[in-house]
Amino acid sequence: MRYLLVGLLLLASSALAGDLIGQPAPAFRGETLAGEPFDLADYLGKTPIVLHFWTSWCSLCRDEAPYWAWAQREHGDRVLIVGVNMTFQDTPDEARSFVKAYRWDFPVLADGTHAVAAAYGVVVTTSPTTFFIGIDGTVVGRRIGAYKDKDAIEQDLLRLIHWRP
Question: Could you tell me the CATH superfamily of domain 2-162?
């Protein structure tokens, strides 16, 4: 019975995430791992946004983490990268250690209640998951799984940066 419920949750979350493409991005408020307030609504409709969902224990998240630090250095002036740590599966200390180790220099939200992940249809088994939000605030893309190299991230970032409604 438990496996049936997990399967239904995965199916529902996947369908929700797919339904977001072409829709306004769900806004959310929270606190970053640094203790700063964060409100996505402050950025929607003003700049392209990347929402990157991850956990510290995810091996794929660790594999691609250096590419996100590189992406911030190379493209952070043209796109807002926001990490969303699924702290309902991590402790804040584990998440902060991960961010420090990989030298992430972009806002990282602590999603301890699972509210942000749920709004985007992300479940832990699909970590990492990345959403791309166009300059008009519309969800224009989603990637489930890790990037294998920085060229793949760059292609998606450039596509997002140049995307127009």
Answer: Glutaredoxin (3.40.30.10)
